[in-house]
Design brief:
The chain is globular and about 35 Å long. The protein is mainly α and 156 residues long. The C terminus is likely disordered.
């Protein structure tokens, strides 16, 4: 499942890493608005676009945007699963893991960012996702409130 069409992927690939990061943040802000207004399909489209952009950015800059990729993967996977689209959610999860594992591990930044290994751990351990989301994306409310019953998939 790709959220960005080939034309837009090509266009966004030409942006600088700073412009890609700004666009990622713009889409995630839209996603938050769509969460608040309960427009699930629009939220999935915005978050999915942010996810695709983070994957695209990491192809050329493997040491960048691993936290952004993880945040958007968490949100879009959750929304897809809540909608009952488990195969699409699994595809996003596996794509995120592939992107994070495709480069040498990034061990965090001097400013205190997390490593790619920590991002992988968070993607695989759903109990850590709410705190990760809250720590790295300063939204007033998290759309990842605990559900009564969770099913999780673990990849080895």
């Amino acid at each position: 499942m790709k959220f960005l069409c080939p034309r837009h992927r090509q266009m966004f690939a030409r942006l600088s890493i700073n412009e890609q990061n700004d666009l990622w943040l713009f889409w995630m802000e839209y996603a938050f608005t769509f969460c608040e207004t309960e427009e699930t399909e629009k939220m999935i489209a915005a978050t999915g676009s942010a996810f695709d952009l983070a994957c695209l950015a990491r192809a050329d800059h493997p040491g960048c945007m691993h936290v952004e990729l993880t945040l958007s993967a968490i949100l879009v996977c959750r929304a897809l699963r809540d909608r009952g689209d488990y195969s699409a959610a699994d595809y996003v999860l596996f794509s995120a893991l592939e992107s994070l594992q495709s480069a040498k591990p990034c061990y965090g930044s001097p400013s205190g960012g997390c490593s790619t290994d920590q991002c992988i751990e968070v993607l695989l351990d759903t109990s850590r996702q709410v705190s990760f989301f809250t720590e790295y994306l300063n939204w007033p409310d998290t759309p990842l409130a605990p559900r009564e019953q969770r099913s999780s998939m673990v990849a080895h």
